[in-house]
Amino acid sequence: MPAEDDNSSTVSSVDLSRAVSHALRHEPWLYELELDDEGWTPVDQLIAALREKGGRWTSVDRVSLERMLETATKPRHERDGERIRALYGHSLTGRIRRVPTTPPATLFHGTAPESWTTIRTDGLLPMGRQYVHLSADRETATSVGLRKSPNPIILLVDAATAAETGLPFYQGNHLVWLADTVPARYLHAPDQRL
């Protein structure tokens, strides 16, 4: 489990969110957490695991966890009673089960221009994650795309047609949607010559 030696007395909501994401998305075994097939784990076990990091992490409690959940600008986790899970972004080998949901008519995906050549043939693939990540609006897709390129392209995803033909979509949060894959026929890059 990653150790912390920061001397401040409390953990910021940003640092707490990062640690919770690491524990619930990527390496729960480092925290000795067991996730069920939908990614849930008991809140008390998560808090105990974080507190075991020592130092300022001993200040983590339900209040700090609730504050982190309530103040997040991008919801990444959800609590349901006495359990908590990450909403999306899992890189675990065991697949987190999702319930298909009707998506907005159009979704967006920000990517590097050089990726378009492959995407226009192969479509969008999870690329090391469990699901393809899509954005509910152009602004979020642009923000994601800027992590990949200083001049990202924004792909339009015809989610309505894809869903009508049986492609499942899953809601991660109000800004993030997920899909198993998105075939190229449902993608359009309006700023690129096709």
| Largest beta-sheet details | 3 strands, antiparallel
Please tell me the CATH architecture of the largest domain by its name.
Alpha-Beta Barrel
> How helical, in percent, are the residues?
25-40%
Point out poorly predicted stretches: 3-7
Strand fraction: 15-25%
Output the radius of gyration.
18 Å
SSE arrangement, N to C: HEHHEEEHEHEHEEE
Query: How many structural units, i.e. domains?
Result: 2
Shape: elongated
Q: What integer is the average pLDDT? A: 87
Please give the number of β-strands.
9
Spatial strand order of the main sheet: 1-3-2
CATH hierarchy class name of the largest domain: Alpha Beta
Number of helices: 6
Cα distance, first to last residue?
Answer: 47 Å
CATH topology of the largest domain: ADP-ribosylation fold
- Structure classification: alpha+beta
InterPro entries: Ptrans_KptA/Tpt1 (IPR002745), RNA_2'-PTrans_C (IPR042081), RNA_2'-PTrans_KptA (IPR022928), RNA_2'-PTrans_N (IPR042080)
Enzyme class: transferase
Function: Removes the 2'-phosphate from RNA via an intermediate in which the phosphate is ADP-ribosylated by NAD followed by a presumed transesterification to release the RNA and generate ADP-ribose 1''-2''-cyclic phosphate (APPR>P). May function as an ADP-ribosylase.
Protein name: Probable RNA 2'-phosphotransferase
